[in-house]
Design brief:
12 strands; twelve-stranded mixed sheet
Amino acid sequence: MSAPQLRPAFLAVAPTLSAILAACAGILLLASGATPSEPTRFAIWVAVAPGPLIEVSHFVSSILGLVLVLLAFGLRSRLDAAWWAALFTLAGGAILALFKGLNWEETVILTAIMLAMLPFHEAFPRKAALSRMEITPGWLLSAAAALIGVALCGWWTFAHTEYADQSVMKTIGDREVARAIRSSAAAAIVLMAIGVWRLIATPATPPVVDDTDPEFDRVRAILAKAENAEPPSNLALLGDKRFLFSASGESFLMFGVRGRSWIAMGPPVGRDDERMELFWRFRELADAHAARAGFYALGPADLPDSVDLGLAIQKTGESAAVPLEAFSLAGRRREVLRRNWRKAGEGGAAFEVLPADQVHTVMPQLKAISDAWLAHHAGGEKSFSMGGFDERYVAEFPVALVRVEDRIVAFATLWTTAGKVSFSMDLMRYSDDAPKNVMDYLFVELLGWGKEQGYQAFEFGVAPLAGLEDRPLAPIMSRVGRLLYERGEEIYNFQGVRRYKDKYDPVWQPRYIAAPHKWAIPFLLADIGLLSSGGVSGLTKRPRPSSAGRPSSAPAG
């Protein structure tokens, strides 16, 4: 294969390989500063070079070694600034290697590493300042371990030279030993300073942003023009999320925190060119706080970014989307749906969509329906990954209404998107005396409304655990999920939700959760369940029994 054909493979491994080489170069400089120079060359150099130049070269060279070890973290994270800083640091170390004792071998090695990294600038696309780099506790411990290791190596080396039989005081007084001690001490002080700076400079956990926060208007503005936003991006307006904003302020990533779990709800929203930077910043910020980072509700389009982030991926279910252009009630497959829709209309049901600025006029009626609906459903109001009935939140969106004799009997809040690629519904609630099959009527009318508004698809939401494989070589979590899907109907109506949505012949797409480690995914899923249900008390809340007739089954909302 030719070099151009192999270049993509080289670019893929360049960040990891550059990080390894930079760390090795840093340890080389640290070890060189902590061990004796080659006697013959050093004697020649001392005779011609001024003493201060030698002292400064040793001192600065050890600090540059520590800097290279720390820059390896930024190289692994594909930071453009780390690449530039590593090149300059390698060049400086190569020059100082000659000045501190004619160590030409070090110069050759450092120059070779610099030249090896030089052609792969495009493998470091992240345009973030080094000051934004969240150096993790593990990386600081690794640097400290390297520093201690080379210091011990230097102590052992000096102990086995001609100084070994001399007193400690005389050894310390020797210029060579003193120089090594100063170099190692300087590196240790710099490392401690970086550790203290990290402790002080690491941003605090971003606070929850609700409608009382000025940042909430920025969230609204981004959603109003984000071409890549999916309908669930509107969960940003729920008032229970924390946000990371891009440098331009035109994109955000929303997440929730429970214990040690930091869980991003969906991919970043806003500009496509800022997605990866927000992904990386979230992962690094969580790692800097010793938290488990998770990315929930990712779609197929997010998988390449997840791979670049080095994440483990697990399928959690499938989402249903109905292409509106192709949807029709004609045909035998639609016979039952068509009959349910017609009967509801003949029974006096009427459909309308109320704009967001008019929702307040019917809010008391919506609240009464919601309260009655909640009384018959387990778990109470949801949050995080599902909307709950909060008057301020409901008023953010258009609301689809079903009326009978001018009385509202069912409603659904609508998640719209700026690009009109798709829309969806959030809360779906109906009263006890709503007509049978009122949800079928509402959905059919919504599909027609969306088509008239220019939307391409209607998203029915996720069928949890659908599509998981139970094969001998499938991941254990997939096999357990499949078992729960098939036999866990008492816990949740997994198969019923899938069957109901299948009536509309949707296109099913997989949904995933991603995390740095596979073992962390069960913990993240448990915390997502608790965040969405309002804690253990929400999970254990039981519905009141009802003798009233109920509309036919529909996905809960």
